[in-house]
Design a protein that fits this description.
2 copies of one chain form a homodimer.
Chain A lengths: L7 H9 L4 E11 L6 E9 L2 E6 L14 E6 L4 E4 L1 E6 L8 H8 L4 E6 L2 H7 L1 H10 L6 E6 L18 H8 L4 E7 L2 H5 L3 H12 L3 E4 L6 H10 L3 E2 L5 H9 L3 E5 L7 H8 L8 E4 L5 H7 L2 H10 L4 H8 L1 H6 L16 E4 L9 E4 L2 E5 L2 E2 L36 E8 L9 E10 L2 E2 L7 E7 L7 E7 L7 E4 L8 E5 L2 H14 L2 E6 L2 E7 L11 H17 L8 H6 L9 E4 L2 E4 L4 E3 L5
Parallel strand pairs in A: 1-4, 1-5, 6-7, 7-8, 8-9, 9-10, 11-12, 12-13, 18-22
Antiparallel strand pairs in A: 1-2, 2-3, 5-14, 14-15, 15-16, 16-17, 18-19, 19-20, 21-22, 21-24, 23-24, 23-25, 25-26, 27-28, 28-29
Helix pairs in contact in A: 3-4, 9-10, 11-16, 12-13
Chain lengths: 595, 595
């Protein structure tokens, strides 16, 4: 994909001086990602692109016509870098719509994101991805979209709102801002030539598009097989060794620092002494709004990388041109003629908090404040309540057991506070009362259900241990990746109250105790996102998390995420989809009653 | 463009170990262009691509299944690098057809060239480019082709065999091995938004192809204007400053070392201390067969760069993956899974003479000897005598002058031994005899003519000073870029003899004294190339150059080239096309008789 000026001839005219530039940024110290230099320069901009960088770092004193601009901006000696390019993000995970997401991240210097809209893809299919494309069209930042490769994540093991094959991907590839195939999560499929992966990745490569990868914890021959299969990147590195392995085989490392995974320190330790770091980029992946509010966005990762010993110039290169090159996006990521004037100004190169941000040559943020106007617009999808199923009766949320027994040996899902969202299977003898399992005697146990919200009527049930809440219920329509309704509860009545409220809110999160709503996040767009400012959604998130503490969940790093990821059948080990409990390693379903 | 395996699933199978590899290269020290490391490894190859690199540079001792191969090759501890990629070449300038060119360069480790066939394009048009594409199809090397952007180099100022517009370029872009637009030489046109350049470069960028540049001696705002216009590279750097200027603005520097231009030392001095050298590649451009025979090919440039202080690992990266990335060619240029098994083995990293060369996993050369069989094939174009015009009568090669004068003040073209092919205009008072200019009294003067060979009947004439020969005639059908017939001569009769012999030989070079042929090169394919081994054509070249010494031309570095470039109206200053003398700077024609 090439980002081009609408009128290239006018840009050429401005470069050579036949017409004045639209804007000249004076007195900047330009960071050159092609040479690694920093030098004094004035930067002329026309048509939203850089026309000329007037500088003389070699002190040649060659004559040059003065650079004239209709407008001028005094950088006052600050460092001018390309705007940051986030190599891998799911905007839905910020729980803001693309337009509110833009308002939140532009002041941090992020001018381009490469986003995988597979959450809304699972809910609304192609229509959902088209919505993400349409509503990001006129933004003062660039949201490039990848066509989700794994909708659903594991066909046949869960029911979502859509299923993407070559036909859907091919349709999405025709959209102008779709740059390739989004994270190819089914690495088992790639390594084993599974037909769906062979056809999707093959189609992507034949179309000469970017095939984004996801290669969790594989190495050696498996990693080579994955690379041979076609995907070109990985944002799942969780160790220095992971990062070193991947760069060596030519897989781009999208070094991630998300709400859940803090991997930068290890990755930088792994790669910083390599002679080349061409294949390293930064990715925010799943980062929630309260974290963006607290720490920043891509600039936070760059800062952390610098603190971990990465050279600041390398960090800026990694955060800009490297990400553009990885995804095959030409024309962004450098302060150089012919490149988009997506720029950030910093007082320090070791503390990347932008004092100004430009997008397409327009000043869009200054001193952390958004200056660009992003208007609310109406989109059909935003008016659809995607939680349209009937609220189940309480009996449906009980788990039947042989009435002639007093207890049953059950397979259960075990959380471990030290492992976060990683779960295991265990067994427990659960009392049977009136033909139903009865967990009331053991506060470490809770019921869990995943309720299909796309009309199949399927409900997967389980008993979970040590999720964390002592009482009450928590429910959500954010339930990766199919985004059915997930609920963890002490009593069916509390679950029903929570689900009814989710339906009323058209999605989000709800916590309940004794039939009363404790807190909630309203995510009415696809049950995933909200058209509200980051401060609003972050405050809702904080209140919700506080309510979980009230329910007894203390000292858990990611209380919401641990539940939201419970249904994802590709994350080890014990998962629950709308079709039942499943072992993510063996991909086999387990019965609740073991014997 | 992505170079892909025919059967990717089989490659994946070999990578993970479900089937043995086709070939395993054991005991190599792999040069990793992604990390800059060198480490011990065995390399498994399948389907012509690298399936797996078995290594453990971090001494992790992780278990791994043994790497099995149907065939094995013992590298005996030698350094294994990717095969070299020549970023910019005109194969025609080697005077060998693509198939004989391949025989000559493969043993030097060149496995891919990005060639601009604009010489044959000027002679035979699209048909000529198609011939280059067709006859390189089944070679044990990769010849990627760019669609010539400047056929002819200066429309309206010369008549060639073809004229390329968007229609022709678009037709060529459909060929599978055409990677983009070849060197956009008309940098004045680009900087000034000339319609032909705007449409051709615009078409190339819209098609997301590579636009190769050519930005001779421009800097500052002109260089920015050129970059804004779209071209992405330049192989015309002749100084350290040129190279630094270009890398800074994001223009790839194809560091050239050709028969004519030795630029490597300066360029390396310019770029070697930059933190990044992502934008540097190597290019052989116009390199003649005797030079290839004497010194090697791309490996010669890499060696020279290393001697100039470039790190050998940087030199290898520049010679491989950098060139592939510049032109947007994916899947070549690295020893990594999923990349083509185009490889070279070296005993030393500071003296890059390959002991073995692999192409697509096949051993194609060893110890400087070609092992691959490249058969002669019949191509229609090779049977066409492109010198089909009538031999002009001697009178046509005399220059008329007012019969009533005894002398005339003339504009002449002046060669300077210190300036090589760069010429200037001068004036001289030339005697007039019987109504014609008579140079017989001044041995420093010679007649020159450029005779259209495409049927227009046009002949451009001039008087040249200090070309070098004292007597006789030299003629050639290699006459950039239109490749009309160029002849420099003392007497019309000698010119006629030379032209007649060129016609008989279907093209090439001829030297003549007193009506006798002294020496000749036979280039019957388009009047530019020969289907003969490099030793044959190099020997012809040597004999021809010796014959020019016999004619008095001593101490001239490039006697043939100086004449062959005389008709090129984009090289400063004084040029001669079939339409007459032209100033390459002002692009204005000059009359022979000044007053």
């Amino acid at each position: 994909m090439r980002i081009q000026p609408k009128n290239r001839e006018r840009l050429v005219d401005a470069a050579i001086g036949r017409i004045p530039c639209d804007l000249v940024i004076r007195n900047a110290q330009v960071v050159n990602v092609f040479t690694g230099e920093v030098y004094d320069a004035d930067v002329g901009i026309c048509e939203g692109f850089i026309a000329h960088v007037q500088c003389d770092p070699d002190k040649t004193n060659r004559p040059e016509a003065p650079l004239e601009g209709v407008k001028e901006y005094d950088a006052k000696g600050a460092f001018l870098t390309p705007g940051f390019v986030d190599a891998h993000i799911h905007i839905e995970s910020t729980m803001m719509t693309p337009r509110y997401f833009a308002k939140a991240v532009i002041p941090h210097g992020t001018t381009t994101v490469i986003t995988d809209p597979h959450e809304i893809g699972n809910v609304f299919g192609v229509k959902g991805v088209r919505y993400m494309h349409e509503c990001s069209e006129d933004l003062p930042m660039r949201q490039l979209i990848l066509a989700p490769s794994c909708v659903p994540s594991l066909p046949g093991k869960e029911n979502g709102g859509a299923s993407f094959g070559v036909e859907e991907i091919s349709e999405l590839f025709k959209l102008p801002r779709v740059a390739g195939l989004a994270e190819v999560m089914d690495y088992y499929g790639v390594m084993n030539n599974a037909p769906r992966m062979v056809s999707l990745v093959g189609h992507c490569l034949d179309e000469e598009k970017f095939a984004q990868g996801h290669a969790f914890c594989i190495y050696g021959r498996e990693l080579s097989a994955y690379a041979c299969g076609g995907p070109m990147s990985d944002h799942e590195c969780i160790s220095a060794q992971d990062a070193r392995d991947r760069v060596r085989v030519g897989i781009n490392v999208d070094a991630r620092e998300s709400s859940i995974s803090q991997d930068i320190d290890d990755i930088i330790r792994g790669v910083k002494d390599f002679r080349y770091t061409d294949l390293v980029t930064f990715a925010t992946d799943d980062t929630e709004s309260d974290d963006i509010l607290k720490r920043g966005h891509e600039n936070y990762i760059a800062n952390k990388a610098i603190r971990a010993g990465f050279d600041p110039i390398d960090a800026i290169k990694v955060a800009t041109i490297n990400a553009a090159r990885e995804a095959g996006i030409k024309g962004i990521g450098a302060v150089a003629p012919g490149y988009t004037a997506d720029l950030a100004l910093f007082d320090s190169l070791t503390n990347l908090e932008p004092k100004a941000v430009f997008y397409g040559g327009e000043l869009v943020a200054e001193d952390g404040k958004l200056l660009a106007v992003i208007e609310d617009k109406d989109y059909e999808i935003e008016g659809i309540n995607s939680v349209s199923i009937p609220v189940p009766a309480p009996e449906k949320l009980m788990i039947a057991a042989p009435a002639d027994r007093t207890s049953a040996r059950c397979n259960i899902i075990v959380f471990d506070p030290n492992k976060g969202f990683m779960t295991d299977f265990g067994t427990a003898d659960i009392p049977v009362k009136d033909g139903f399992l009865d967990i009331s005697g053991d506060p470490s146990l809770k019921y869990a259900a995943v309720i299909n919200r796309y009309g199949t009527g399927t409900i997967g049930q389980a008993i979970v241990k040590d999720y964390g809440i002592r009482e009450g219920a928590v429910a959500s329509t954010v339930a990766h990746d199919c985004h059915n309704i997930v609920v963890i509860y002490d009593k069916p009545e509390n679950a029903v109250t929570a689900i009814a409220r989710l339906k009323e809110n058209a999605g989000g999160y709800v916590s309940v105790r004794d039939g009363e709503i404790l807190a909630e996040m309203k995510l009415p767009v696809a049950g995933l996102m909200s058209n509200t400012p980051i401060e609003t959604i972050a405050a809702q998130s904080q209140r919700l998390k506080a309510s979980l503490e009230t329910l007894g969940m203390t000292g858990v790093a990611f209380p919401l995420f641990n539940m939201a990821i419970l249904p994802l059948p590709v994350v080890p080990v014990a998962r629950l989809t709308d079709l039942g409990m499943i072992n993510a390693i063996t991909q086999e379903f387990l019965p609740i009653i073991a014997e």
